[in-house]
Amino acid sequence: MTPSTPIHPAPDTPTARQALALAGVFQAASLVDELARTGQVDQRAWETLIRATLDTNPESFEAIYGGHPNNLRRGLEVLEGVTGRRQANPVVLRYGFSLLMLMNKLRGNDAMMDELGRRLTRIQGQAEHFGETHENVVASLGEAYQETLSTLNTRIVVQGDPSLLQSRMMAERVRAILLAGIRFALLWHQQGGRRWKLVFQRGALKKTLDQLG
């Protein structure tokens, strides 16, 4: 067993898929908060989000997050806060639920969905040339978010250290992570995830989180 292999493989159930997709949303929320406050970010969590955003035609559901639930560990830990099992950072929760609201706005805008698809296709070519997490790729992902999703009425205002937020590449990195959050929010909806289920099916979500370890 390699060190990167999780102890618990992900169960292949609709609820587990919804939980993992939602973990991606809240992982993005957590990394935005971390980046805005400290200027640093968990590398494994960051790479998982960027790769998922670029992989618009994955071989399988598991391939989206790199095949290991531990790649979404940060998000799964935040989800435990959503279910009330641990203390949750209210700023991270606000970012996460704002991403879900923004995703719903996007779903109703076919032109913007098409534009994002075209942009991501071009950025995939960049990633093949420079590498998935190269700053040119990150800058393009950030620009894609800025010129599409940030023009909607539902906007996400990021709080943090003003000097850090104004530093080089910070805005692009934050926007790239927010775009990744939208990617996982769309995945969550595709797998049957709905806001009301977070309230009325909290027990099922807790059980799934136990299975995911």
Question: Topology, please?
Answer:
Layout: H1 14-38, H2 43-54, H3 61-64, H4 73-82, H5 90-107, H6 110-130, H7 135-147, H8 162-165, H9 170-190, H10 195-200, H11 202-211
Structure explained in plain terms:
This protein is 68% helix and 0% strand. By secondary structure, the protein is an all-alpha fold. The protein has a single domain (14-210), classed as HflD-like (YcfC-like). The two termini are 17 Å apart. It holds the Pfam family DUF489.
Describe the structure concisely.
The chain has 213 residues and is mostly helical. The protein is built from eleven helices and no strands. The chain has one domain: HflD-like (YcfC-like).
The number of domains: 1
User: Uncertain regions: pLDDT < 50 for 5+ in a row?
Assistant: 1-8
Instruction: Assess the beta-strand content as a share of residues.
Output: under 5%
Major beta sheet summary: none
Mean pLDDT comes to 92
* Known CATH architecture: Orthogonal Bundle
Q: What is the succession of H and E elements?
A: HHHHHHHHHHH
The structure class reads mainly alpha
The CATH superfamily name is: HflD-like
Number of helices: 11
CATH topology: YcfC-like
Helix content class? 55-70%
The count of strands amounts to 0
CATH class: Mainly Alpha
Q: What's the N-to-C terminus distance?
A: 17 Å
Shape: globular
Rg (C-alpha, Å) = 16 Å
